Each structure stands twice: as C-alpha cells, then as structure tokens.
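Re: [ENG-882] Designed sequences occasionally contain unexpected residues at chain ends

Forwarding the minimal case from QA. Structure tokens:
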C-alpha cells in the first residue's frame, strides 16, 4: 500500500494499492522531489470518472510503468472534488496549452509546482493518434535530464501567463435590462431548436441558463425564454440522459439528441435539475415537470443519502458487466431479449416500443439506453407502471455502480435548497426533513464557530481541506432556502456567518471574488473564475446569496458586495451568456428587487399556511420569504408587522416600497406577478 491508505477520499483510496508510490497533495511531496532532483507527475481525477478508471487499470496498475514512475518522478494523486483549487489552477494551464481539458488530468511539474507539460488521458502505448503514457514519461525524463534550463524557462513563462489572466474578464456596472436582453439574444442564437439545449455534442444540461430563462420569463413575461426552458427540459426528460426507471440525471449526453449519456450520476447535477423542474412546474403547471422533480428528489434521497444525514457525491458510470469485467453503463442498458426475459413476450415487446429499445441498439453491443419517444399515442398508464416497476426490480439485481460517499459541502448546499423547495411545493414534508438533516450535518461537521467551512466529510468525520468560495455560497443558498420554507430563523443566522466570511476572506478591493480564502494554501496563482462550470460559479453564487441575505436583513454591506460581484455579469452577458447563467439569474433578482415577503400569523392557522405557500410559489426572481408569529424575532422582515384584525397577513415590499398588507392569497399572488 502506498501513502494514500489513510485518505478520506474514495477516489484516492481506489489508488491506495497501486504499485505507483503515490503521494497526496502537500508540501512534503514537493520537498521530496526537490531533494531527489526529479519532477512531479500530478494526476487529477474523481471517483465517478470513467477514463480515470481506464487509465488506472492500463497504467497505474502496471508494474513496469509504476516502477518507471517511482524511479524518475514523485507521483501526486489529487481528487478534484476535494481540491477544486488545485484542479482549477492546473486545468487552466492545460486548457491554455492544449485548447482542451478533462479528466484524468496529467500534469508534469517542477518541484516548485510550476507546470511544464500537460495532457489528459494517455493510453499506455500510442494509439489512435494519442501518444503513449510510456513515451510521454520517457520524453519528460529526457527533457528534464538534458534540457533542464529550457524546462524551467517554459514553466516560468506558463506561470507568468497564468498570473496575467486574473483581470481578463472585465467588470462593468451592475447589469440591467440591456444586458439581460443581450444575453437572451445570444442564447437564442446558440439554441438547438430541434433538440433543445445549446451547442452540439457532447451536450450538458444547461441548469444555470435554465434558471435564468425561467426568472427572465417570470419578470418580463417573455414567452421565448419560457419556450427554450420548457422544450429543453422536456427533451432531457424524454432522453437517455434521464434514468427512465429510477429517476435522476446522468452527467451529460455524448450526442446532440440526449440519447446516450455518460452514465455517472452526480449530486450537483441532480440538485440543480430538481430545482429547475420544480421551478418549471411553478411557472407552467406541467405534469412532466412535477414528475421529474419528484422522481429526481426521490433518487437523491434514496440513492445518495448517507447514514449521517448528508448526501454522497456520485454514482459511478461503470459497473460489473456480469462477466467479471467493468463496463460503462452496464447497470442501465437493455436489449430486446433482456426485456422479454424479464417481462414475457407481450410486455417485453411493449416495453421495447415504449422505451425505444431496438435490435440495433443505441449504445454498445446492441444494447439501448431507455428513453421516451414523442408522439407515441395514448398508452395504458397502469401497464407502463407495472413494466417500469418490474424492470426496476430486475435492474436492482444487477451489480450496482460504485458510490463516492464523501459529502461535499457545496453540493449538499445545492441539494438542501432543491429539496426544501421541492418538498414545500408538493407537500412532501419528508423532502424538507431530508434538507434539514443535511443542513444539520453541515453545521455539526463542516462549520466552525467563526463561520468557516471544511469542504468534505466522510462517515461523519471532517476532511482536511478548507472550503472554497462555492462551498460558502452554495451552503448559504441552501440555508436561506431552508429558512424561507421552514420559518426557522436560525438558518438565516448561519447563512449570515458564512457570508460574513465571504466578505472578509474572499473579496478583493474592487469587489471581485476569489475562489480561495486569503488565508488558504498559496498555489502558483490564486484562482478566480466567474464563469459556471458543472456547478454555479462560486463568484456569482455568492452574489446571489449575499443579495438574498440583504433582502432578508437590510444589511447594506451584503447588498453592496452583491452588486459589486455582479459587475462581471454585465461584462460577460452578451459575450458568453451560456457560461454566466447563474450570474444572469442573480441579476434578474437584483433588477426585480428582489421582493421581500413577510407572512405573519399563528402557527397552525390554515390561512397562515396558505399565505406562506402562496409566497413560496411566487415566481418573482429571487423572492425571499419569512413566516412567523406576530411579534416574532426569528426574522428581521417580521419586525413590527402585525396581523390584520387578528387574521394572518402578508406584506410584500420591493425597493423600499411596500404594498398594502393582505390576508387574501389571490391578492398576494398578484403582488408577486411581473409588474406587481
């Protein structure tokens, strides 16, 4: 066993028995490289990554390759989900040098951590135009031995280039109507009108952009924005990217039509998409949106919940294929013969037609990914439910994909927000309770008394890595959503602690935000990126949480910090709207107010509950809701807000102007509409 045996990361533990003498990331590894006079080979991946597993089997488990690595390098293995800062810095270098990136990421460094050669997946021997890993290792060793000065010069130039990228985004004033219109126009140009979504293959769920489109429609009534969101959501829900039996979404589709997914299922995707579909239902009343939101919630709670109350990071793409090997998608795909074997001749043929399973197959070796075809006509709903239940039971007997059971603070924050709102919308108190349980775990295990976060935990034990900006932002977002849904002001207080840390430790003098704290480990550069990736940018997620907190409390420093952070959205709205979706969604909230709703009334009074539910279902972008008894000190919004002649009442304010209080849910509903 190498030095990864004591790691808390399931990904690192997967490599603990490699013959490669892996080191975890840390100063000691680089000091050893310095003393030995050898370069560092840095390998970055994550547990659910298919090609990470392939490279491990082909190269890192190979005795000869491992021996060569051990002789000529110090090998460092990093879980990108534990150290997103390390991943971000070196991925930026890989993308700048090669024009593309991905995982596994392979970077060769000097003992000072400066990169000089890059790649992603390497096969052990050259094939299909890709250099072999053995050739790469030998080439790096030769360059290090014979051209050390040149290597150092290359590394220095790369580091200087990275240092100059921090101010490249441009910052303008807080975005307004013009920027939102330009962003919508840009998205319309890139929209795939036939298949939904944006761009070509591979196609990723555009969760953050969908939130912007729904908020823009809610504020302006723009039907084009709603149409793009609705059609994309329907295309994804009918495609193979959505698990038609067990619920939940895969990471992305390898094709433009959403048919064949990359089968890993990530907590963050499912949290973000659960919320999108719940918000789509709120906007349209769509039965499909309701079903997908609830099925995704049930997947998250049923498949990803941990014994400690949090949510695991992911399910692997690969699983045992039944013949002793591992194959991507083996758990999820079907042939016509398999359907008949499980369901009988008649139902097997019915299922094949209903789910699009063909003799040719849509995946590998004649297997198909289940999808729902459009325009299939009326079907027997009971028969469909019976077929689905039997196939799900049959699938459960297959070898299951592995689960990465570490708890990531940011992704649990996203799940808390989604489960709290979905539970409230559909009267599922169990989902709200699951959100509360996860929030309790984050407070107990991840958060200290100063409002500082640890990024990960496993089995209820905190890891060793500091939280990054997205952790603070997304956990605060989750706590704020939970405060609005439960009426428990303690979640607002916890959010305030986290956001104070954002202001004091992550903000630059010009209002921009860094991804790491001012007292975090110093890397070759301090990462700073306002654009969305698989999750909302920490920068714009923090802006959103700061804005909501300010609306709840009237805290001017938090409103000012939010507006300063949103300056980058104005600069990128027209240039790259697909990659600043969360920032655009937050900007919609800022333009709309956001509106503040205080519901005052007796707990248990049906009118209080109805007004509270009406407020939560108000689609005004970024609306914040407080509910409590008259005279309650749980929320600042409740201060000096009486009931109306003993009847529960709702108060709606926007931009320092308040509507007349109302005890009529219909009036409250109209106050939260566009222009209300």
């Amino acid at each position: 066993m190498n030095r990864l045996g004591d790691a808390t990361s399931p990904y690192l533990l997967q490599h603990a028995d490699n013959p490669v003498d892996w080191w975890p990331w840390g100063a000691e590894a680089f000091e050893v490289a310095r003393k030995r006079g050898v370069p560092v080979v840095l390998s970055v991946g994550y547990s659910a990554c298919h090609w990470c597993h392939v490279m491990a089997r082909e190269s890192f488990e190979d005795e000869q390759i491992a021996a060569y690595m051990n002789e000529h390098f110090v090998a460092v293995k990093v879980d990108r989900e534990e150290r997103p800062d390390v991943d971000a810095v070196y991925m930026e270098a890989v993308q700048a040098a090669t024009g593309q990136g991905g995982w596994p990421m392979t970077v060769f460094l000097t003992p000072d951590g400066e990169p000089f050669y890059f790649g992603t997946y390497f096969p052990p021997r050259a094939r299909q135009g890709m250099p072999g890993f053995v050739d790469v290792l030998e080439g790096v060793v030769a360059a290090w031995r014979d051209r050390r000065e040149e290597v150092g010069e290359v590394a220095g130039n790369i580091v200087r280039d990275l240092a100059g990228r921090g101010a490249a985004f441009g910052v303008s004033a807080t975005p307004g109507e013009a920027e939102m219109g330009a962003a919508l126009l840009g998205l319309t140009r890139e929209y795939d009108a036939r298949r939904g979504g944006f761009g070509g293959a591979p196609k990723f769920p555009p969760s953050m952009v969908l939130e912007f489109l729904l908020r823009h429609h809610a504020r302006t009534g723009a039907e084009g924005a709603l149409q793009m969101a609705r059609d994309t959501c329907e295309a994804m829900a009918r495609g193979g990217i959505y698990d038609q039996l067990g619920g939940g979404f895969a990471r992305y589709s390898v094709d433009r039509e959403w048919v064949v997914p990359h089968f890993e299922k990530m907590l963050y995707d499912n949290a973000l998409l659960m919320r999108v579909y719940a918000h789509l239902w709120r906007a349209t009343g769509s039965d499909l949106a309701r079903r997908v939101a609830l099925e995704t919630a049930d997947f998250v709670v049923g498949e990803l919940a941990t014994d400690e109350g949090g949510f695991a990071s992911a399910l692997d793409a690969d699983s045992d294929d039944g013949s002793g090997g591992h194959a991507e998608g083996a758990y999820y795909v079907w042939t016509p013969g398999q359907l008949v074997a499980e369901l009988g001749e008649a139902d097997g043929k019915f299922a094949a037609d209903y789910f699009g399973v063909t003799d040719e197959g849509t995946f590998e070796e004649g297997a198909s990914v289940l999808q729902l075809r459009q325009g299939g006509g009326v079907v027997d709903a009971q028969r469909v439910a019976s077929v689905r239940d039997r196939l799900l039971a049959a699938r459960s007997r297959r070898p299951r994909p592995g689960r990465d059971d570490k708890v990531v603070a940011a992704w649990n924050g996203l799940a808390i927000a989604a489960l709290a709102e979905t539970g409230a919308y559909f009267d599922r108190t169990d989902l709200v309770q699951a959100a509360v349980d996860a929030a309790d775990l984050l407070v107990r295990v991840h958060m200290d008394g100063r409002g500082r976060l640890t990024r990960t935990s496993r089995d209820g034990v905190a890891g060793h890595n500091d939280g990054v900006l997205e952790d603070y932002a997304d956990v605060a977002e989750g706590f704020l959503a939970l405060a609005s849904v439960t009426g428990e002001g303690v979640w607002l207080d916890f959010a305030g602690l986290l956001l104070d840390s954002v202001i004091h430790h992550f903000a630059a003098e010009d209002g921009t935000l860094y991804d790491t704290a001012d007292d975090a480990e110093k890397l070759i550069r301090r990462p700073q990126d306002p654009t969305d990736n698989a999750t909302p940018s920490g920068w714009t997620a923090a802006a959103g949480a700061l804005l909501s907190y300010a609306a709840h409390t009237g805290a001017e420093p938090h409103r000012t910090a939010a507006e300063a952070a949103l300056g980058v959205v104005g600069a990128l709205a027209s240039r790259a709207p697909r990659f600043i979706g969360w920032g655009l969604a937050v900007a919609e909230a800022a333009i709309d107010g956001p509106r503040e709703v205080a519901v005052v009334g007796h707990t248990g009074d049906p009118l209080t509950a109805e007004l509270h539910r009406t407020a939560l279902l108000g689609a005004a972008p970024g609306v914040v809701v407080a509910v409590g008894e008259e005279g309650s000190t749980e929320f600042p919004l409740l201060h000096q807000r009486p009931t109306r002649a003993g009847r529960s009442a709702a108060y709606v304010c926007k931009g320092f102007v308040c509507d007349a209080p109302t005890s009529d849910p219909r009036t409250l509903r109209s106050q939260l509409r566009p222009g209300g």
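QA comment: On inspection the terminal residues look reasonable. The chain has a mean pLDDT of 93. Proposing we downgrade this to a documentation issue.
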